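User: Predict the structure for this protein chain, please.
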Amino acid sequence: MAKVGIIMGSNSDMPVMQEAITILHDFNIETEIDIVSAHRTPEKLYDYAKNAHLRGIQVIIAGAGGAAHLPGMVASMSPLPVIGVPVKSSNSIDGWDSILSILQMPGGVPVATVALNGAKNAGILAAQILGSSDKEVQQTIIDYKECLKEKVNKSAESINSKK
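Assistant: Here is the predicted structure, written as structure tokens:
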């Protein structure tokens, strides 16, 4: 059963959202992926938001560009944590419209927001949320962060050895 739902407003968002899919698959976390447009398929949005938890989804990552209403609308109807990924799209104002649409949610409707095109971090955050109640996922995150530390240390050693 899928644990993380990954949705996006259109297929053009897939190159950005693929980073969340990839990192979650690297962590052996199941995903459910779909295109759900807040403006073009509102009925599908409603159904997705209201029923994702009934399908075993535990966290939703929602990416959208332009006006980017998808993450906030999902958060308004779902009991699940929602992570918004602002996407710099062709109809975007340098991505600022997407960032502000996702970031500036009213009280009572939280959306965790990552950086512009930051789907990889959205995937990592989703894994951390799952890891708070799943020790195996938590260990995967601990190991991942240890690898990050090792990469930095190796880079530092490489620079220092050239002196």
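The beta strands are 4-8, 31-35, 59-65, 82-87, 112-113.
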